[in-house]
Specification:
With 120 residues, this protein is mainly alpha-helical. It is 72% helix and 0% strand. The protein has 4 helices and no strands. It has helices at residues 3-37, 47-83, 98-103, 111-119.
């Protein structure tokens, strides 16, 4: 396995995730400021608009948590590359299959340990 290629892939993914995190944080800041001032404009709003805005805010918050989690996974994989332990399962110390790492470069658990993690 070409570790440099995996590192490049992780760095590209990281840049995309950081961009998404920044955009979502900006969206949430705008909606928070609008909530604090009452509205983004003086145009009256319909009750349905408030529901849609709440839905959008909750969706953005959920997506932000997902992206932040993915960012942590990517950073952990990059740390493992720097330490020379990339491709070694964090849980049982076994080698993570190259196929798994090609599919999910940020994987830090072998497929067996990942399955156990998802069951728990």
């Amino acid at each position: 396995m070409n570790i440099e290629k995996q590192k490049d892939s992780l760095l590209l993914s990281r840049a995309d995730v950081v961009s998404n995190v920044d955009q979502l944080r900006s969206n949430l800041e705008i909606t928070t400021n609008a909530d604090e001032t009452g509205s983004e404009s003086d145009i009256p709003t319909h009750d349905a608009d408030s529901g849609t805005a709440l839905f959008d805010r909750e969706r953005d918050e959920s997506m932000l948590l997902d992206f932040e989690g993915r960012l942590e996974e990517i950073d952990r994989a990059l740390q493992k590359i720097a330490e020379g332990t990339y491709g070694v399962c964090d849980r049982d110390g076994k080698i993570i299959s190259p196929e798994r790492l090609l599919a999910i470069p940020e994987a830090t658990l072998c497929i067996e340990c990942q399955a156990m993690e998802e069951i728990l």
